[in-house]
User: Fold these one by one.
Assistant:
Number 1:
Amino acid sequence: MSSILLYSADFCGDCRALRAWMDREGIVYELRDIRKHPEYAAELAEKTGKEGVPYLVIDGAWVRGYDLGKPFSETFARALFNR
């Protein structure tokens, strides 16, 4: 089973959509809210050079959880887990 961290924030629409999709798909993850826990925001910025969310860590690999400039899509979300 994969180890998944999801860096997210309540204000982020893509984050909410990705979380809802992951929940529907039964994907287990640890939520790391960058707004409620500034240390997670600092960790995200240190590891990726960005503060954009959603971002995932899947089995140790940092993966951007949004398709730049595009709305959330289930096709994109599925591709995140089929690397």
Number 2:
Amino acid sequence: MALITFESVGLSYGGDNVAHDVSFSVQTGEFWGIIGENGSGKTTLMKALLGLIPCASGRIVMGEGLKPNEIGYLPQQSVIQKDFPASVYEVVLSGTIGWRGMKPFYGKQERALAAENMELLGILPIAKKSYQELSGGQQQRVLLARALCATRKCLVLDEPTTGLDPVVTAEFYKLLNTVNERGMTIIMVSHDVEEAVRSCSHILHLSCHPLYIGTAAEYMNSPIGRKYLKETAL
């Protein structure tokens, strides 16, 4: 059984239909890039996946015992998040709250998981630093580590490189590929078509008719893929 299956999903936002009859399956270990023009339903699809809004039609089926609250989520950063007055370690550790259950304090298992993910993303040396004093790239690594602490199976990312310079963006995508190679399923909304095709294994393009659903390699050679990749290269 697939990890996540979208069965004839229809989505609406503000009373308007933004996506119709979306059907595809995400297998464990895949890296999906969700692309499309503004208003095509990318963020709405993500919210439905996370259980924050209902589908207008159809349904989203979770496999392998996955639940919406067990998906690690990295949202777009807000000004409030950037000024969050906590240490790197505290921010990352907060991602384990879902595993803590009724325990009033973090245990050895949660602390070990936080340390493991900080080491994976290269931020263990700055564990005691204040989050608000970090660069944008460092903050995104911290939030990614926090999201990893919330899940063992699936990450959902919303425009994770917005506001980052090209060098930091490239480094961040390398980290995502490393996480994916370790078996983590990733679903990422992105406005960067070229980078999504380069990094992801599969593409869902929402703003074309019919929808493109398939591998990134096939997308590059499809009419819609060639069109959009040519436009981003201009």
Number 3:
Amino acid sequence: MAQIICRDLTLGYETGVVAEHVSFTVQEGDYLCIVGENGSGKSTLMKTILGLTPPMGGTIETGDGLRSTEIGYLPQQTLVQRDFPASVREIVQSGCQARCGLRPFYNKEEKLLAEKAMKRMGIFSMKDRCYRELSGGQQQRVLLARAFLAARKILLLDEPVSGLDPIAAAEMYQLIRELHNEGLSIIMISHDLGASVQDASHVLHIGKKVFFGTRDEYLNSSIGRYYMAAEEVQA
């Protein structure tokens, strides 16, 4: 069943349009990889899906009874966020805020869910450490645990391996793969085309040209072959 349906989206801000004619569908259990050139509107699209930025044109519909409180989001980190002076436990538990409603505290069940998420991501032993003291890979695991708590149906990831060394990046991809195999729909932005599309069921390429289709259709398309070849040259 379709969870998100985007039709002929125009993306941008007051300063101008960044992408046009973007159409795609996310079915339950899909793994959608969003790729494209820098500045092509990938992060803007994700913010539009989340309702943080209104589309300049086109429509976004939700199905399968999807609610905003069932979507987890791991954004790109800023330098300020990397220096956030909170404990790992506090940051992960904040993923339960949508469950709390108007309650100003976390109940026993939510604290238990946070503990399970930390164990799931291999960071439970760090629960009392300050977030800003962690390595980049450890910080991403903390943020993934937080997003996982909020994601009851869909997990949105914006460049989840950005700035990570190859080992930490491979570990992050493995965690995402496991979450998808457990039933979560995944929407992931990545500049790492070769690694990111390995697990994808579908690919959305935005830029001067827009492509949406299955992973195999993308890899066999002219635009897919061009960008895969370009990445191999850069490597």
